[in-house]
Amino acid sequence: MPSVRCMSLREGSSRSFSVPQERRVATALPGPNSLALQARRVASVSRGAGTLANIYMDHAAGAVLVDVDGNRLIDLGSGIGVNTIGHAHPDVAAAVAEQATKLMHTLFTVTPYENYVRVAEKLAQITPGTHEKHSILVNSGAEAVENAAKIARRFTGRRAIVVLDHAFHGRTNMTMAMTYRPWPEREGMGPFPGEIYSVPVSYPFRDGLTGEEAAERTIDYIETHVGPRDVAAFFAEPIQGDGGIVIPAPGYFTRIAEYCRDNGIVFVADEIQAGIARTGAWYSIEHHGDVVPDLVCTAKGIAGGMPLAAVTGRAEIMDAVQPGGIGGTFGGNPVSTAAALAVFDVIEREDLIGEAQRVERTLVSRIGGWTDKYDVVGEVRGKGAMFGVELVEPGTRKPNPALLKHVLKHATEHGVVPLDAGSWDSVLRLLPPVVISDALIDDAAGVLEEAIESFQGVGEPGITPAS
Ligand SMILES: *Cc1c(COP(=O)(O)O)cnc(C)c1O
């Protein structure tokens, strides 16, 4: 068991963190030390690793990042949904430190160890459905998705992989091909593998369809473009992340899962961004009724920042692969799995699923009214600590990427770090750690309001843009 430290400090509503949970901007952002690091970075790091804000971080706790100039920033991104339980949780740090002194690597497929088995046991327990489940552990989300595709093809003996419009599944060759938008993830980097088909999703803000209508459109596309008997797997993010926090309409996945079942198609939930307590449930598919995926991909939030990912699913599907057919050198390494076990423990002990639900209530009451207040906000939607703000041209549904760019610049210059999203780069994405306080949400929302109001041509006449 991971050792328990500072537990009393973190219990209940008054959590305590090693960094004050308050924004403090003491220098221009980026500050002088960040600028110096940026100069070295440009001289040594590929520009292909693009950056949202060139503010270099030194340490963090809870929902506050501290940069190399001593500024404290509110983290509304969690490193894209990774630090769900908050930065620097002492239990996770202790579990990692202890494991690192004990056993760092053997390779599970050479000589195994208990942590890997314990993570697989836990995943079988928390993923939807009561059937027998088996898991494989790997290093990254993309690797989990690729493995799920391999496993589904091996199980079905079929070729085609169906994905949804606006999906994000990763940056390896296979998962680039499964990812919707060409820029910046794909351009100039083909050729890509074939037999991957993108079909229309349910995107209520843009298509106005009910879940049933959108599902029929999706199914019709499969029938007329692919042929269901050639489809090995249907991949879906139950709440799309990079695609813009797109939440398919009620009933959509019920019908899709039924169609998959009737046609022998493996239904794969990519829960890499939305899973592990982020949305106020262990997995975001739980918001779509009692839909049970055949396979579930987990990554990002599973190990508090350590690299770990998993495919979990029906034992007969997972075991269709011959021994040696899936695996990898670092997959499920002892330290990452120790971190994951500590994360599971913290989520349960500190009721972080309940905390994500609290974040949802606070966000709805604090920013839900933006659609009435601003004619450039088309919709505010989300579950738990996973929200999207659809930015539009005034009074229309036309995407407004210029506004998103402005909001991100203003926010990061004022000590708030949100994320971008959407196929048109026009969805402001909020993925804070679920331990973020209501006061921090309120302060961050105020900065985002200033950002929206200071966008040229928007807001009440006479509003002075914040400096
Ligand atoms: C981030 C992400 C991936 C890819 O994960 P990596 O760890 O970056 O490879 C896949 N699917 C979804 C939904 C993601 O958010």
From TrEMBL:
Q: Which reaction does it catalyse?
A: (S)-3-amino-2-methylpropanoate + 2-oxoglutarate = 2-methyl-3-oxopropanoate + L-glutamate; 4-aminobutanoate + 2-oxoglutarate = succinate semialdehyde + L-glutamate
- Keyword Transferase listed? The answer is yes
Which residues are the signal sequence here? none
Give the Enzyme Commission number. Answer: 2.6.1.19, 2.6.1.22
Which SUPFAM superfamilies does the record cross-reference, listed alphabetically?
PLP-dependent transferases
Pathway, per Swiss-Prot/TrEMBL?
Amino-acid degradation; 4-aminobutanoate degradation
**Manganese listed as a keyword:** no
The record's section on InterPro entries has: 4NH2But_aminotransferase_bac, Aminotrans_3, Aminotrans_3_PPA_site, Class-III_PLP-dep_AT, PyrdxlP-dep_Trfase, PyrdxlP-dep_Trfase_major, PyrdxlP-dep_Trfase_small
What EC class is this?
transferase
Q: A Pfam family in this protein?
A: Aminotran_3
Q: Which UniProt keywords apply?
A: Aminotransferase, Pyridoxal phosphate, Transferase
Q: Fetch the Gene3D superfamilies from UniProt.
A: Aspartate Aminotransferase, domain 1 (3.90.1150.10), Type I PLP-dependent aspartate aminotransferase-like (Major domain) (3.40.640.10)
Q: Which species does this protein come from?
A: Amnibacterium soli
Q: What is this protein called?
A: (S)-3-amino-2-methylpropionate transaminase
> What is its cofactor?
pyridoxal 5'-phosphate
What family does this belong to? Belongs to the class-III pyridoxal-phosphate-dependent aminotransferase family.
